[in-house]
Amino acid sequence: STDDTTDIVKVRQMITACEQGQLHVIQTLLTESSRYASQQDEATGLSPLMAAAKVGNGALCQHLLDAGAPWNAIDRQGQCAGNFATTHQHWGVVNLLVDWGVRAELILGRLERRLRDAGIGNLE
């Protein structure tokens, strides 16, 4: 469909902008739709967050995470943003992603406990 084609083009624009550190392009695209932060290239599985992590752009990684980019998404090779940051020795980005992941897991754990205590069951 046209929406799918548009999304493919937009996610590739997001990835290129992340690789080049073009925050204004990212902000413009996210204003159009926040879903572009969480989409991945169909062929490679690369996400904007992975591209930003690979080049070590911590500010851009933070912006994408705040916009809803999943910190734990993996590409077609089984690599996540943290793998890209580690491989390229961008330790500040690694720490950012680890901190984000720990917070997300703590929040999820707290939510699961509250649901269980309320007799609602698990989230799986």
Describe the structure.
The chain has 124 residues and is mainly α. The chain has a single domain, classed as Ankyrin repeat-containing domain (Serine Threonine Protein Phosphatase 5, Tetratricopeptide repeat, Alpha Horseshoe). Helix content is 63%, strand content 0%. It is built from six helices and no strands. Helix 4 packs parallel to helix 6 and helix 5 runs antiparallel to helix 6. The model has no long low-confidence stretch (mean pLDDT 92).
List keywords for this structure.
124 residues, mainly alpha, Serine Threonine Protein Phosphatase 5, Tetratricopeptide repeat, 0% strand, Ankyrin_rpt-contain_sf, RMT2/GAMT_Mtase, guanidinoacetate N-methyltransferase activity, ANK repeat, Ankyrin_rpt
Précis, in short:
The chain has 124 residues and is mainly alpha-helical. The chain is built from six helices and no strands.
Summarize the SSE layout with pairings:
Layout: H1 2-19, H2 23-32, H3 48-54, H4 58-66, H5 81-87, H6 91-117
Number of domains: 1
Approximately what portion of the residues adopt beta-strand conformation?
A: under 5%
Q: What is the CATH architecture term? A: Alpha Horseshoe
What is the approximate shape? globular
The CATH first-level class comes to: Mainly Alpha
CATH topology: Serine Threonine Protein Phosphatase 5, Tetratricopeptide repeat
Pfam families: Ank_2
InterPro entries: Ankyrin_rpt, Ankyrin_rpt-contain_sf, RMT2/GAMT_Mtase
GO biological process, one term: creatine biosynthetic process
Keywords: ANK repeat
